[in-house]
Automatic annotation (TrEMBL):
<dbReference type="InterPro" id="IPR001810">
    <property type="entry name" value="F-box_dom"/>
</dbReference>
<dbReference type="InterPro" id="IPR036047">
    <property type="entry name" value="F-box-like_dom_sf"/>
</dbReference>
<feature type="domain" description="F-box">
    <location>
        <begin position="19"/>
        <end position="59"/>
    </location>
</feature>
<protein>
    <recommendedName>
        <fullName>F-box domain-containing protein</fullName>
    </recommendedName>
</protein>
<dbReference type="InterPro" id="IPR032675">
    <property type="entry name" value="LRR_dom_sf"/>
</dbReference>
<dbReference type="Pfam" id="PF12937">
    <property type="entry name" value="F-box-like"/>
</dbReference>
């Protein structure tokens, strides 16, 4: 390294810690974890600042599963720089949670989630306000009500697939999280789920059910029960028609109500059955 490069490196190393943290906030979380700590002591110290670990997006768009494989670029970086032989999502999550030191406020988890990881974040991330969860196993689904009750500051919950335990989960959220106001959920909305939103989450202000199987009766139950809704998005749903006059009338008090592309029944394309046996009498519309 020549004199000019040494001087530049020294200037970066001598930068005020608060400035370094502000710069690191603009970097991907993986770079803060895997690369920044190896530059110098001041960068290592700045990389441990809990402010950098308040928003933990561990899904990162598409390819979340591949991101945490041992042969992934992130796994290779930890192997080369830290000698980690068996890189895993569980280990990376433990690192992120430790760095957050209880101050994480947003958490998005990938499909690799298991019971130990759920227990970890429920116990060591008490300040979470926004949580996004993938589809859960049956065992973890059953435990969800007890887990979410530990996030007493929770404001927004996103569920990739409607859990079987949703009624109990909504009841625990309603009783334990006074600031809760936003829910996003996919899947089939049952009568008990709509009733749970109406009775357990009456102060809900923002609700997104895009792409759900959402019967008209259940949609009306939500509208009638959640009287403080400011936005309700039910686009591309099956179970009611986007042009339903009664639905539009009942939702008139909701500031932003979006139902574009929703239809009473799913479209049936004859091309899907071309080449099959002629006997299609077993096809039953269960809507």
């Amino acid at each position: 390294m020549d004199t000019g490069e040494e001087a530049a490196a020294a200037r970066w190393g001598d930068m005020d810690a608060d400035c370094l943290v502000e710069i690191f906030r603009r970097l991907p979380l993986d770079d803060v974890a895997a690369a920044a700590p190896l530059v110098c002591r001041s960068w290592r110290a700045a990389g441990r600042d809990a402010l950098l670990w308040r928003e933990l997006d561990l899904r990162g768009g598409g390819g979340a599963t591949a991101r945490f494989m041992p042969w992934s670029p992130l796994g290779a970086a930890f192997a080369a720089r830290y000698g980690v032989r068996r890189f895993s999502f569980a280990g990376y999550l433990r690192l992120c949670v430790a760095r957050a030191a209880g101050h994480a406020v947003e958490l998005t988890l990938p499909p690799l989630l298991g019971a130990p990881e759920l227990d970890l974040v429920s116990l060591r991330c008490p300040a979470l306000r926004k949580v996004s969860l993938p589809s859960l196993s049956a065992a973890d689904d059953a435990r969800l009500p007890d887990l979410v009750a530990r996030w007493r500051r929770l404001e927004h919950l996103e569920l990739e697939h409607r859990p079987a335990s949703f009624p109990a989960t909504a009841a625990r959220v309603g009783a334990s999280c006074p600031g809760f106001s936003s829910l996003k959920m996919a899947g089939a909305i049952r009568e008990v789920d709509a009733a749970a939103m109406a009775t357990s989450l009456p102060r809900l202000k923002h609700l997104c059910l895009d792409g759900c199987y959402l019967p008209r009766h259940e949609l009306l139950a939500v509208i009638h029960g959640c009287l403080e809704l400011e936005s309700l998005s039910a686009k591309l749903c099956v179970g009611f028609d986007e042009g339903d006059d009664e639905v539009a009338r009942e939702a008139a008090m909701i500031e932003r109500f979006e139902v574009g592309g929703s239809r009473l029944v799913d479209k049936f394309d004859q091309r899907d059955v071309d080449g099959l046996d002629d006997d299609t009498s077993s096809y039953v519309d269960v809507m």
